[in-house]
Every structure is written in C-alpha cells, then in structure tokens.
TrEMBL record:
TM region positions: 148-168, 212-232, 244-266, 348-368, 413-434, 474-492, 527-550, 562-595, 655-673, 679-697
Residue stretches making up the Na+/H+ antiporter NhaC-like C-terminal domain: 306-422, 519-670
Protein name: Na+/H+ antiporter NhaC-like C-terminal domain-containing protein
Natural source organism: Polarella glacialis
Keyword Metal-binding: no
Keyword set, alphabetical order: Cell membrane, Membrane, Signal, Transmembrane, Transmembrane helix
Length: 744
C-alpha cells in the first residue's frame, strides 16, 4: 500500500466578542482505493472570552477550514456526493446537517457552531462513503487539558440575577436594595466567591462606572438640580404654576402641553427628560395631575422622539453601529445613513408609543396602576394626591424635601421662566459648538455617510455637526451659565423693606448658592440609583446575558420571524440592563449576522436591504421598549427625578403601558413587516387601532375607566374621559371667542 501524506486542517472557532483560536493538525492517509484515513490529531486552544469561562452550553459561530495536499500535488476527492463529513461534540454544522466534500476541491470552509465549555473543546469528525467502498473513518480531537476543566455554571444561571431584580424590587419597593443585591450576585457568580464578589463590587466596579460616561451624567444632574433648587427657593416654580394656570386651564390641556413640549425638545433624550419634567411639574401639580402620569409622558416621549429624528445626539452612535455591522457581513448596497432614514418608517415601537401617549392624553382614560394613581390625584381637593406620600401627610412629606420657597417673598414666575429659557436657549448653540470643537481621530477608511472621520467645521452639514457633538458637555455648559444667571437675577431684585444690604435681595448670592446646593440633593437618590443600575448592567453583560438570549432563540429564525425575535431579544436585554444604547451596541452585530444567515436573498440586493431595514428597526425599537419597561433604566430614573416621583411608583405605573405598546408593535408591526407588509401602512393602521385597544382595556371593571378632567378655575372637575376632554376644548374656544369680542 502506497501511503500519501495528505493535509493539515485548520479549525478556527470564533467565540462571540472575543478572540479564540484552535489549531487542529491532522494527517490523512489515502490508500490506492482513494479512501481517506486519519492518522492522528492534536488540539491547542485558548478561550479568552470571560463568559465562556463562566457558562457552559453557549453556541458561537465559527468555521472549519480544510486543505488537501500531497507533496506539491492536490488530491482530488473522487465525488461530491460520495464522501460526507459529519461533525459532533463541541463542533456541529449550524443547521445540524452533514457536509458534502466537493469533488477536486483543494480546500473547504465549512460554517459551524462551537459550543463553549469553559474554553475546552472536543470535536468528533466522521467521514463516510455512500458507495460503501471505503470504510467509515472516525477520529476525535480532544483537548488534553479537559481533565483540568474549571468549575462552570449552567448557562441558565444568567437568569438568576435578571429575575431576582423583578422579585426583590416589587416586594421591598426599594430599587436600591434590589439593584445592589443583583449586582453583587453577578459579581459573585463571575468570581465564584461571594467575598471576592463583594470586594470587586465595592472596590472596583462602582469606581469604574463613575470613571465612564455615567460620571458625566452625574455632574450634569447635580448642576441641573442646582438650577431647579434656585427656581424653587426664589418662588419662581410656584409663580410659574400660578401664571400657567391662567392659560392652561385644566388637567387635559396640561397633559397635551407636556406631550408636545416633548416633541419640541427632540435633539437629546436626556435634555428632553429633565427639561420637560422640571418645567411642567409646577403646572401639572396645579391641575391635580399625578406625577406618575407626568413622568410617564416625559419618559415615553424622550427616547422615541430622539431615536426617530435624523437630527439628534443619537445619530452618531446609531450610524457608527450600522456602518460597523454592515461591514461585518460585507454589505455595501446602501450607506448607513440611507439605511437609517429608510428604517424610520419601520420603527413601530417608537411610533406606536408616541401614538399611545397621545391617545392616552386625548381620551382621558386609564387602566392598571396608572388608573389608581390618577384617581388618587383627583380625589384630594387640596392637590396633595399628586404624589404618593405613603403613610406621611402632605405637610410632613413637603417638610422632608431638601428645598422650599423662601418665606415672605413674592412668587414671580419670571424667576423660573428666565433660568429655564436660559438653559434651553443656550443648550442648542453649545451643542453645535461642541460638535465643531470635538476632536476625533481619523479612521483608516471612510465610506460615504460615516461621521467623525474628517474635520468638522461650521460649514459642515448640520447632521455631521450634531453627530460629532458631546451632548453631555453642552448640557453642563448650559447648566453652568444658568447657575450664574440665577445668582445675578435674584440678587438684583432688591427691596429695602426686606432689610439692608444683602438682606434686601430676593436671594443674596450666598442664599442662591445654598439653594443650588440643596437643590442638587433633589437628584441624589436618582444619581445613586443610576450608579447601581449601571453597575448591575455591566455585571450582567459580563455574565453573558446577551449571548444567552441570542443562543436561546437564534436557531428558530426565519426571514419572517427575524424582526420579531430581534425585537424581543433586544427588549429582554434592555429590560435586564436598563440601557438602550448598550443594547444597540451589543445586538447590532448579532442582528446583522442573523439577517445574513436566514435570508434567501443575495446580500447586496434590494430585497435583502428591505429585510435589513426591518431588522435594524427592530434592534432600535426593542432597545427602547425594554428601556421603558425596566425599573433600572437611566431614562426611567431621570424621568422620576425630574418629575419628583418615587422611582418605584413611576416604574410600576409605566410598565403595563410600555408592555401594551410593545405587544401592539409585534402584532401590527414586526410580524407583518417580516412577512413583507409595508411599514408606513402598518403605522397608519396602528394609529387608529391603538385607541380602540386602549379604551377596550379601560372598560374592564375595577381595572380601568375614564379619568376626571380637573379645572382649578372652577375648583372641580368639568367632566371625565372623552367628554371631559371635549368640555375642555369647548371652554377654551369659548374663552377665546369672548376675548376677541371684548377686544376693541
């Protein structure tokens, strides 16, 4: 028998998000009958991905590469249908089928799925001959270090800290304990030691979060709290509420003002959240609107609007993710900006949530926990029901607040209006300034539509300037200017009857600074909640929850179900981690690879482009949906802070509404769009069906119903539900007509 040395086979297994390399060297012997034979193999591998060292049974995409050579000549395997390569163990074809070896092939690149088990792999290769002329050959590649396999957890362990938050927080009604405990549990699992997990959490993890962009958010929130504190202490907030009540006559109009103001501040979700909540709260309190409803309106308009707008601080991040994900699958048919614009008509959750908030305000009906909160707010004739004070009276609750209006001074609305206008008016110019001043390092290549690769000047397009801007710097600059304006504004309002020298000021500079410091305390609890939420989210990501979700549902995908599954996966991740941006960063690469895997269309074609638009819209929509449902979300916390409502009260009242909008998005959006339905048509249908579903749920006894429209001018309600809204509109038109007739 003449033996011919065949080849070396290279097995490259790429673990998600990390570098993995496994060198498989084998020698084939080909007998005169052209029958292949294994003579030996070794495996050397190192798995650097942290979650692969923690969890077992997680599948990662990879490939098997083979080359056949005999000296300098190529060995041609006889027939493509004759020899079949089967893989098992930790390596298997993605669809679970066998691989046909092509005739006269010099090499083969076979996609496989690799099951990680702490970084140690076993692969079983079986070659069979369909004619039976050659015997079946089997060889097992086994890592010699398998006996030293470290202790790993079942992959389902990632669900424990995820679920425990949603058990502890409702039971204790304390977000801080729930987040802190879950973060410690994640670190304990990763470290495999509760004491090391404790040391890691308090010795490193919290500090690392503050070093990042959370630190920028915290500084801004302290500054904004100072602005609010000055407005409260000077009597501006109380005066603004009294002035606004002359124009905004009832709770129905107050809700609409909050909703449309959310549309007006479209450029940034954080700015939207804190500005709208802080400005409108004095008005909604006057109208006996619950702060839970205000925080819901604020929260559920901020991210959807910022995500939809092609001119916002979101666009740079989204375009970068789309560009990188497109490059990873070799997609070049359209630029990332074209994909972004085209996906707007398929972002069903953002549109449907905005529609739902509008109809909720317009119809004046509620259900679930929000119905209870709104009934409580209307029931108290003195307005004390706008916030849940627990066992305390409203007087005791107000006494506990860190800042109150100074006694014996006039309540002038301009003392709040001017600072808020200053903040809003300087934010946008500062945002453009930040976009021009920010220095970005150029990248090696730049396809049309990418941003941050070239120098940005004042002559650059608006979208490029905004895409390059540091929105946190702009927010801090605007807050800093406003704090200085407040010191001057309150000092120049001098009345000698109040005393001599500084005592005659409405607020002396020292009093204003003290009020600003006390105002920062308004946001202290929210800042601590943000810190714990970010720490918990990072720990959960390190534990590998994204891979778990993708692995759990990835095998069931078709082009029709891909958008829906992607939407659900992203919402689960955002729900668990509380970050829409983090969810986008994790799932954009995964979603694009899944789209490439399940599609039946050529990658660079119009048909695949349409599928890709729906998929990326599902990533963006699911990120916001989970963010709205999560009690640990940054915008959830900021909305509660700006509306001055307990975080748990905001989370529990918003969750059913966000869940409703998400389910409608699946049924009327992502499922039909996955089947080929036009996105804009489904959005129009949703606009008209959402109020039908909403009113239907409010008809359930003891679950929902119409809400009274309160008018402080008459000191009572002017109607309830849609009839109350109609009465509000009639009163407004009547007063407008009377004013015109009275005018000379």
């Amino acid at each position: 028998m003449i033996n011919i040395r065949a080849c070396s086979a290279l097995l490259v297994l790429l673990g998600f998000g990390a570098a993995s390399s496994v060198d498989v060297c084998t020698t084939w012997m080909v007998a005169p009958s052209s029958c292949p034979e294994f003579t030996g193999a070794t495996i050397k591998g190192k798995e650097d991905r942290s979650s692969a060292e923690i969890l077992s049974g997680i599948n990662f995409a990879g490939s098997v590469s083979f080359e056949w050579k005999a000296s300098n000549a190529t060995i041609a395997l006889p027939n493509a249908t004759r020899f079949t390569l089967s893989l098992s163990g930790d390596v298997a074809p993605p669809k679970g089928g066998d691989v046909k070896i092509a005739e006269a092939a010099e090499s083969a690149d076979i996609p496989v799925m690799f099951t990680s088990s702490g970084g140690y792999k076993t692969a079983i290769f079986i070659i069979t001959d369909s004619t039976g002329a050659c015997p079946t050959v089997q060889h097992t590649f086994k890592d010699a270090r398998t006996e030293a396999l470290p202790y790993v957890f079942d992959k389902g362990v990632v669900l424990i800290p995820f679920i425990i938050v949603f058990i502890i927080v409702p039971l204790t009604q304390n977000v801080f304990f729930g987040l802190g405990f879950a973060a410690w549990l994640c670190r304990t699992i990763i470290a495999r030691d509760p004491w090391i997990g404790f040391l890691d959490l308090f010795g490193r993890a919290l500090n690392e979060e503050i070093k990042g962009w959370l630190g920028e958010i915290m500084i801004f929130m302290f500054l904004l709290g100072g602005v609010v504190g000055g407005c409260v202490r000077s009597g501006g907030i109380q005066g603004l509420g009294e002035m606004a009540s002359a124009y905004i006559k009832d709770s129905f109009l107050a809700m609409l003002v909050a909703y449309f103001l959310g549309w007006a501040v479209f450029c940034d979700d954080y700015a939207n959240t804190v500005i709208v909540g802080s400005v409108v709260r004095a008005v909604t309190d006057k109208m006996h609107l619950s702060r839970e409803k205000l925080s819901f309106i604020v929260d559920c308009t901020s991210s959807p609007i910022a995500g939809l707008m092609p001119l916002s601080t979101w666009i740079a991040y989204e375009l970068t993710l789309i560009r990188d994900a497109s490059a990873s699958i070799g997609y070049t048919h359209e630029t990332e900006y074209i994909l972004f614009i085209a996906s707007i008509g398929k972002r069903f959750y953002a549109w449907f949530m905005l529609f739902f908030v509008f109809w909720n305000c317009a119809l004046c009906v509620d259900w679930g926990p929000m119905y209870v909160a709104e009934k409580r707010a209307r029931a108290a004739s003195d307005g004390s029901g706008v916030v849940n004070t627990g066992d305390k009276s409203i007087q005791d609750w107000e006494e506990d607040q860190p800042i109150r209006m100074k006694k014996n001074i006039p309540a002038r609305w301009l003392n709040a209006f001017i600072p808020f206008v200053c903040f809003i008016g300087t934010f946008l110019p500062f945002l453009f300034y930040a976009g021009v001043q920010k220095v970005t390092m150029p990248v090696a290549t730049c396809e049309p539509g990418c941003y941050g690769d070239n120098e940005i000047t004042w002559e650059s397009p608006t979208k490029d300037i905004l895409a390059n801007a540091n929105n946190f710097a702009a927010l801090r600059w605007a807050a800093g200017v406003t704090l200085i304006v407040q010191i001057v504004l309150y000092a120049v309002q001098y009345d000698k009857t109040r005393g001599s020298r500084m005592k005659g000021c409405l607020l002396s500079p020292a009093e204003t600074i003290e009020a600003q410091l006390n105002g920062s305390k308004l946001y202290l609890e929210g800042i601590v909640a943000l810190l714990l939420a970010f720490t918990y989210a990072t720990a959960l990501r390190d534990l590998g929850i994204a891979t778990f979700f993708a692995d759990a549902l990835g095998e069931t995908l078709t082009p029709t179900t891909l958008p829906t599954v992607t939407f659900i996966l992203c919402s689960l991740f955002a729900l668990s981690t509380g970050t829409s941006w983090g969810t986008m960063g994790v799932f954009f690469p995964i979603a694009f690879v899944l789209a490439q895997t399940v599609t039946k269309e050529p990658i660079n074609s119009d048909a695949f482009t349409s599928e890709l638009e729906t998929t990326l819209a599902a990533v963006l929509g699911g990120s916001i949906w989970g963010d709205h449902c999560s009690p640990v979300s940054d915008t959830t916390i900021l909305s509660a802070m700006s509306s001055q409502v307990p975080l748990w009260d905001h989370a529990k009242t918003q969750l059913p509404y966000a869940f409703f909008a998400g389910v409608v998005s699946i049924l009327l959006g992502y499922l039909p769009a996955g089947a080929g339905a036009p996105g804009p048509l489904m959005i129009i249908i949703g606009f008209f069906l959402i109020p039908v579903f909403h009113v239907g749920l409010s008809k359930i006894p003891n679950f929902g119903g119409p809400i009274e429209v309160y008018c402080p001018e008459v000191g009572e309600c002017i109607g309830e539900g849609p009839w109350g809204a109609m009465n509000s509109i009639k009163r407004s038109f009547k007063k407008s007509s009377n004013s015109q007739e009275a005018a000379p």
